[in-house]
User: What shape does this take?
Amino acid sequence: MTLADARAMLPALEVAEADASAEAELLAGIADWCRRFTPLAALDSPDGVLLDVSGASHLFGGERTLLAEIVAALAAQGFAARAALAPNPALAWALARFADIELVPPDIPERDLHKLVADLPIAALRIDSETTAALAQAGLRRIGDLLMRPRAPIAARFGAPIVARLDAILGIRGDPLSPRFETPAYLVERRFAEGIARREDIEATIAGLAHELCALLERHGESAREIDVSLFRVDGVVKHLSAGTSRPLRDAKLIARLFRERIEAAGEEGLDTGYGFDVVRLAAIKVERAAMPQSTLAIEAAVNGADYSADLADLIDRLGARLGWRRVLRFEQQETHIPEFAVAAIPVAQTRGRSVAHATQNGSTANANLLPARPLKLLERPEPIEAIAAVPDSPPAKFRWRRVWHDISAIEGPERIAPEWWKHEEAALIRDYFRAEDASGQRFWLFREGLYTTETVEPRWFLHGLFG
Amino acid sequence: MSLAGSSERIGFLRQTLARIEAHSTPAAARQGVWRSHKSDRIALGGENFSLDRVLGGGLQVGALHDIVAAHPRDAMAAAAFAAALAVRFSRARSRGAFVWIVEDIGAREEGLPYAPGLRLHGLDPARLVFVRTTNVRDTLWVMEEALKCRGVSVVLAETWARAKDYSLTVSRRLALAARAGGSAGLLRHAAAAGEADAIVSAAATRFEIAARRSIPLPAAGRGPPLPGAAAWGVRVVRMRAGLGRAVDWQKFSNVAWDHEETCFRDALSLPLVATPRNRPAHAAQESALLSARVFALKSRTFSDLDENQRRAASRVA
Assistant: This one.
């Protein structure tokens, strides 16, 4: 039906543009909310959510009660939902859309299952509309029409996928679910009759859960590397807080403190308690065998024989939790000689690669002596300067940076740094670096970009770093 | 009473105390009260370094030290001096992390610490934990937490805090944290250049830093000379404990940083000039010729210094 036809029939019709991305987002929100019933919640675009509740339904008073609760809770949020529970996802999908049967018990006899499936229309197989139409043309309208026929001719005529779908709906072949989030290795949660909204309550709950989680981890001899707190708000919104750790962690107090920092960093409005949270869940997403005494920190923190590296790791975890891991960094050497890429600042918690430590393993400063001059601080990007030089390829006599003229009184250079030609960077030019000192004692790291006449007619000057 | 006399006397009294306490607590005797007192200060330079004499033997570990530039153009001098102090502190304790905190505004103004440059400054970048913060509140929080941590040997924070963000209370918290953790705190006030006398703080020491021209090395050809080892003018503005009376609060003493030995030197002392080891190419030159030329250059270098120091320079020559 076209929009014009619809309007002719109902003049008061409200029209809104379909917003696929907003719908997908909303559906993701619903899927997140559904994780309160099971950690295995999968998005089933464009209009469904699949939950694997095996082994979870008894926690909610049986399968029928669980179904009713989900539908009622969604209705309270303003969603009209149809739900069905079946031994396999394909059947549940079909029942929710094409039948009034809500619940198929897992121990249903095969004959009953066949009868049930046979009554469903072909569209319930979830095959594309062309195939459905082709089947309808051949007079096959119900799944039963297919089931009673030999399979080989059907597969030959309508394609192999249709047979696979038949197997899926009968539960002969597994139909994989791809959950929205990784299933946590360990999970503890607490449910409240009414939402909790005070920050102290939330923190205390997390602290309590941390104890349970640590007991679980202890029993299995494992430690957490990545921990996640999910806060399920009464009105269906789910908040996630996650914290990575620089070393395997199994200490309830430290875990509680990490999340205290996270909540502190998020602030009152970031947490947005609203009507309060009625489910608080703490999950260890990634775990490691605790037996591995693996520290990603290169820094030895033993002082006077006492080992303080645990203290240091704890400090770094807390800084990471509060500021974010992209702000707690260490330096790592890179495979390039271009000054701005020679060293990368990477999060301390990341697994160790080639650290700059290797270059000065024994702290010998003798080789440091042979290194070319490098500034104490490097500007985030080279800043263009106005430089005056006697001839285009000589060191500058004075330059202007940030609107101030500097007269150069001492200068060292050039140190020539060529671009990485093996990377086919056509645009890159050769740089000549100079270490310059001005009349007031400020020291700069300048470079001229481009060789005069061979590369460019007008070489440009940049200031790249500052010496102390 | 002369200065030497009083310190001798105090030393004697401390030893007596240690002997007395030895009877009650064997552990204290073994450690030695006198020694433990001495080791909580770190000398900045070698023997007879003038700033160490001013500071009464060096800088206190487990305390907070403020660093301020004398003029906005001296910002990097202050940063490098602070980094040099940090190197001193982290070398004194063989292990423990060096935490360097930089605010985002500082990154835009001066760039970020550069590991190869830090190595040339005498610092092992492997021990560095580099923290970036967005605001003053976070900077001070990180600094306090890091100072409290026993696995950290020195914390250097560069803050663009205005006077209202940094109060006596805040600085006292930092000083207490430093004392509790036994680590040194260095706080550089990047937004307070020239206001060293106005800052209210509980720091043990406060330095004002000015950029100074290095002692240049002669160029191989005819061109301008090469810049030498980093040098700064250092003024002690405040000192909480120690020989406060003996300090000339207005005097800038010129110091140079020896990144090989990782220690400060008086910028006028001879050894630094006579053995220019930082650029190997020039070390090959005839030392006699070199020192002769260096003396000629010296008068040019320190022409901006006051009369007093120039006289001292000529005396050395």
The longest helix of chain B spans residues 3-24. Chain B touches chain A through 72 residues (CB under 8 Å).
